[in-house]
Write a structure and sequence with these properties.
The chain contains eleven helices and 19 strands. Helix 7 crosses helix 8. Bound molecules: ligand LQZAQKY5 and molybdate ion. The site of molybdate ion has 7 residues, from loops.
């Protein structure tokens, strides 16, 4: 690569995109790679701080930033991910589907440990929409030694890809609402509609809602009835805490289900229960989920609908970041909660 003063660069070809930033007004490409510099460009180039430009004279084995960005994007992208052509030396990865974004953290760490390589990503287990931007790949200098890119490619070949999006599966779900106050008509059910809305987001096949009094046998019967209908998921509301009438965890245990956890290091959602009765997931959802927009349930549901089976360890890890700040305006998943 050769350095040329801009005044002497008329007629020469730019070898990288050139960025202009005016705070609050503009950030983007002022000149594209490949642009042939004209007399009238000189003043603008000087204004964005370029007194010199590079002229591309590749050494054997050198890789230009655009090619490096493409190769890193290609190596790191897995299922349901596409990448855009490079802009200002960076490729942006995007999701082709609504789903759960998975990141192999250790592999990403190793790739970013290669000098000059930079791959920035959303965190693991992020819920993403179709077309959402996921990550950006680039190298820091304009030209990088090819062996650095080859090293990243080899790592991905062996252990990769780093990123994938798991689309949500079409699963069957029902709701069991317990509590004498609702069953006997003392108060109106407010829990069912909140749970139904969450299931709708995942386009679950809805099997309906069953109401039970505070009676273990009847709660157990409602669970079994949904499993006979082929439920993949049964959400249970009411009776999840410590009062004498709180019978839901006991009723779940009595069905013979394998209890993964009753209680999680997450607030709101401390009294959450996850169990598996055969292949059917039973989720005991504490009352806080009726009140707070985001609770542990919003962390668990995407993983469940993406086909994951959660174990105790998954919940233990949620403690750091499991304390919700209950912001006046909740912006989850754009926050630290349960990351
Ligand atoms: N001494 C303690 N008290 C509480 C604890 C605790 O550990 N020790 N845990 C708290 C936490 S955390 C939560 S969350 C709630 C959990 O409550 P439950 O899920 O057991 O809910 P209930 O006791 O059945 O009801 C609480 C509240 O919500 C109303 N409710 C229940 N279901 C419905 C429904 N379908 N529609 C409308 N309203 C409903 C119910 O009438 C009560 O007012 O416990 C804390 N307490
Ligand atoms: O299960 Mo309760 O969060 O912590 O409100």
């Amino acid at each position: 690569m050769k350095t040329v003063p801009v005044e002497k660069a008329v007629g020469m070809v730019l070898c990288q995109d050139m960025t202009k930033i005016v705070p609050g007004e503009f950030k983007g490409t002022a000149f594209k790679k490949g642009h042939v510099i004209r007399e009238e460009d000189i003043e603008e180039l000087l204004k964005i701080g370029k007194e010199h430009i590079y002229v591309w004279e590749p050494e054997p084995g050198d890789v230009h930033e655009d090619e490096a960005a493409i190769r890193l994007a290609k190596a790191t992208s897995g299922a349901h991910i596409v990448y855009e052509p490079p802009k200002e030396g960076k490729c942006t990865l995007k999701s082709l589907v609504k789903g759960l974004y998975k990141v192999k953290g250790t592999l990403l760490y190793r790739i970013n440990s290669i000098e000059s390589v930079s791959v920035a990503s959303l965190p693991n287990n992020f819920t993403v929409e179709k077309d959402q931007k996921l990550a950006g790949t680039r190298v820091i200098p304009l030209v990088v030694e090819g062996n650095k890119i080859e090293e990243a490619e080899a790592l991905c070949e062996k252990e990769g890809p780093v990123f994938e999006v798991k689309p949500y599966q079409k699963l069957k779900a029902g709701i069991v609402t317990t509590g004498n106050e609702v069953f006997k008509g003392r108060i109106q059910d407010k829990f069912g509609p909140v749970m139904k809305k969450k299931l709708d987001y995942f386009e679950a096949e809805y099997l309906g809602q069953k109401f039970c009094p505070d009676d273990m046998e009847l709660i157990g019967e409602a669970i079994r009835s949904f499993t006979r209908e082929g439920a993949d998921l049964i959400i249970l509301t009411g009776g999840m805490s410590v009062d004498p009438d709180d019978l839901t965890p006991g009723a779940v245990r009595k069905t013979g289900a394998r209890v993964v956890t009753y209680g999680v290091p997450v607030q709101p959602g401390n009294m959450f229960l996850l169990a598996y009765l055969g292949s059917t997931a039973l989720m005991g959802v504490p009352g806080c989920a009726m009140f707070h927009r985001t609770t542990v349930l919003d962390v668990v549901l995407p993983r469940f609908f993406a086909g994951e089976i959660l174990e105790k360890e998954d919940f233990i890890k949620m403690g750091e970041g499991g304390f919700c700040s209950t912001c006046p305006e909740c912006s989850y998943p754009q926050c630290y909660f349960c990351r």
